[in-house]
From TrEMBL:
The keyword Signal does not apply. The lineage of its organism: Eukaryota, Viridiplantae, Streptophyta, Embryophyta, Tracheophyta. It comes from Hibiscus syriacus (Rose of Sharon). This is CBS domain-containing protein CBSX3. It comes from the Eukaryota. Keywords: CBS domain. Residues 65-124, 133-191 form the CBS domain. InterPro entries: CBS_dom, CBS_dom_sf, CBSX3_CBS_dom, Diverse_CBS-Domain.
Amino acid sequence: MQRAVQAFSVHGNTVKNAVLHRIRVLNPVTRPVMFSRSVSSASMEEHGFESTTISDVLKAKGKAADGSWLWCTTDDTVYDAVKSMTQHNVGALVVVKPGEQKSIAGIITERDYLRKIIIHGRSSKSTKVGDIMTEENKLITVTPETKVLQAMQLMTDNRIRHIPVINDKEMIGMVSIGDVVRAVVSEHRAELDRLNAFIQGGY
């Protein structure tokens, strides 16, 4: 998955620039005939995947954007947290303090379970989530305004697969590397379609 993300980061602009270069080298005599109206490549780029934000990703996720993301409390056992991950087929849970669902205390992931429970031979049924979670002050987070490509870079640079979305110090959702890659793929495909229409005179 990380190789796919890195490939998009490295080669995404290469594809687009090649197409834009194709536009620039077209015979200037025929160019006015091809386009029904004048649209610069710069204005087209404003609508490309560089402008997609985390807010767009949350909207695409539907219910996951309205605060219904999965969570557990610091007092829950690691066993219960891992059981919840398994039941819902997710790799991480937001951790909150008891009675404070909007106030994030940290995050617990499958990686935390493997590295801090299994490897050390600890009991998941007697260990609290608060004892092994990644605490809030160490979390890497994004805001709704963060660009998707920036979020993807943060996740690959820090080798993380889930990132909380914070707005005004409150958690409003969480996105995974899969969410981000899907958004990039979708926007990349849409932008190529727009560039193709641009070349063919669809604009």
